[in-house]
Automatic annotation (TrEMBL):
It holds the Pfam family TMEM175. This is DUF1211 domain-containing protein. It comes from the Bacteria. Its main location: membrane. GO terms for molecular function: potassium channel activity; proton channel activity. Keywords: Ion channel, Ion transport, Membrane, Potassium, Potassium channel, Potassium transport, Transmembrane, Transmembrane helix, Transport. The keyword Ion transport applies. It is a multi-pass membrane protein. Belongs to the TMEM175 family. It is found in: Membrane. GO terms for cellular component: membrane. It comes from Dechloromonas denitrificans. The keyword Ion transport applies. It catalyses: K(+)(in) = K(+)(out).
Length: 192
């Protein structure tokens, strides 16, 4: 099976996720700048989640460029990833509405952790489908960011119960690490 339908479906789901998240930003009642103050936590949680969805979309796009075809296991692994990403609007809204309280911050971290695991499963499924000459395996190399991210999320979940602000800092740190352009797949594709 070609990968075009998988890419189009995934792009559509991610676009819907972003749309649902932005709908959580309710228009304030009042015309003064102070009316925006209650929206600050909701806005910051939206920005963080928007960045994460953007990171996943970007990396998913590059990863699928290495696949020549799509198998049934790849479709299921992709759906598994989309499931966890589809929870972003819920946990984003819950965390923002509750001003980054401990439990919403921890659950947000659990969803980040599970999305990272699901992404890794999708990577491994594509690698398995490509066989021993996997372009994706070659491109990923040691994949230190992919290995460090779930560990950082798990630490963030634990930190949320002690200091939610430290948990948020951990989630922001991981996002910043991934914002640095990752050219591994582009380089591997250019070499072929």
């Amino acid at each position: 099976m070609g990968k075009g339908r998988l890419e189009a479906f995934s792009d559509g789901v991610l676009a819907i996720i972003i749309t649902i998240m932005v709908l959580e930003l309710k228009v304030p009642h009042g015309e003064q700048i102070e009316a925006l103050a209650p929206l600050v936590p909701v806005f910051f949680s939206y920005v963080l989640s928007f960045v994460y969805v953007g990171i996943y979309w970007n990396n998913h796009h590059h990863m699928l460029h290495t696949a020549h075809s799509v198998t049934g296991p790849i479709l299921w692994a992709n759906l598994h990833l989309l499931f966890w990403l589809s929870l972003f609007p819920f946990v984003t809204g819950w965390m923002g509405e509750n001003h980054f309280a401990a439990m919403p911050s921890a659950v947000y971290g659990v969803v980040l952790f599970m999305a990272a695991v699901a992404y890794w499963i999708l990577e491994q499924t594509i690698i398995a489908a490509q066989g021993s000459a996997s372009l994706l395996r070659e491109a990923l190399g040691s994949d230190w960011k992919g290995k460090a991210s779930p560990v950082a999320y798990a630490i963030g979940v634990l930190l949320a119960f002690w200091s939610p602000s430290l948990a948020q800092a951990m989630y922001v740190l991981v996002a910043l690490i991934w914002l640095i352009p990752d050219r591994r797949i582009e380089k591997a594709l250019a070499g072929n």
